[in-house]
């Protein structure tokens, strides 16, 4: 006798992969963030015409990467709070909370509240990136206050988790 397995309504948002504790996902995400953070830092230092790009990057690359990863997790936790909160408040799978939860899982552009919630999560992560990185860059002796601000702001804007908005279809 063959047993049938049916999966109903199995939708999985991309940003929830941050919570999936498998080494390949964590490694790919971490090294992707590392490459992007280092590239943005170097390009910002080039735009600032900073003479000690290598010294600045050498002194802070790992802190910037780890704190950027932490910031992305903070933003993803915000999204998870909205998603799981909607599921808890609307267990009957009907109404606007279900529409919100569906939009959070597949396409935040499908529901205005999901779009706002996602924008808040992205802004929250970007703000964390700015404040964390500004603190790191203030401790780098080769940078002055303005350069630390510009670097932190550039990283916050460019490396904010914009993939939160990525529709799955």
Characterization of the model:
With 169 residues, the chain is mostly helical. The protein has one domain (21-165). Helices cover 67% and strands 0% of the residues. It has five helices and no strands. It has helices spanning 23-47, 53-89, 96-106, 112-138, 145-158. Helix 1 packs across helix 5 (145-158) and helix 4 packs antiparallel against helix 5. The longest helix has 37 residues, at 53-89. The relative contact order is 0.16.
What's the arrangement of secondary structure elements?
Elements: H1 23-47, H2 53-89, H3 96-106, H4 112-138, H5 145-158
Helix pairs in contact: 1-2, 1-5, 2-3, 2-4, 3-4, 4-5
Short description:
The chain is an all-alpha fold and 169 residues long.
Please report which band the strand proportion falls in: under 5%, 5-15%, 15-25%, 25-35%, 35-45% or over 45%: under 5%
Count helical runs.
5
Structural class: mainly alpha
Helix content: 55-70%
Mean pLDDT: 85
Give the overall shape, derived from the CA principal axes.
Answer: elongated
Radius of gyration: 19 Å
pLDDT < 50 runs, ≥5 residues: 5-12
| Element pattern in H and E | HHHHH
Largest sheet: none
**Number of distinct beta strands:** 0
Oligomer: single chain
Number of domains: 1
Distance between the termini: 37 Å
List keywords for this structure.
mainly alpha; 67% helix; 169 residues
């Amino acid at each position: 006798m063959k047993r049938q397995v049916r999966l109903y309504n199995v939708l999985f948002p991309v940003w929830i992969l941050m919570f999936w504790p498998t080494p390949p996902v964590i490694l790919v995400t971490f090294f992707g963030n590392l490459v992007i953070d280092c590239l943005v830092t170097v390009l910002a230092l080039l735009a600032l015409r900073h003479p000690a790009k290598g010294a600045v990057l050498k002194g802070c690359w790992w802190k910037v990467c780890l704190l950027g990863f932490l910031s992305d997790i903070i933003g993803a936790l915000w999204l998870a709070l909205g998603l799981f909160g909607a599921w808890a408040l609307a267990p009957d799978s009907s109404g606007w909370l279900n529409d919100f939860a569906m939009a959070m899982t597949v396409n935040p552009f499908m529901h205005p509240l999901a779009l706002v919630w996602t924008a808040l999560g992205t802004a929250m992560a970007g703000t964390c990136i700015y404040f964390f990185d500004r603190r790191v860059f203030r401790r780098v002796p080769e940078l002055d206050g303005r350069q630390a601000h510009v670097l932190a702001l550039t990283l916050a804007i460019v490396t904010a988790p914009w993939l939160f908005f990525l529709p799955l279809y």
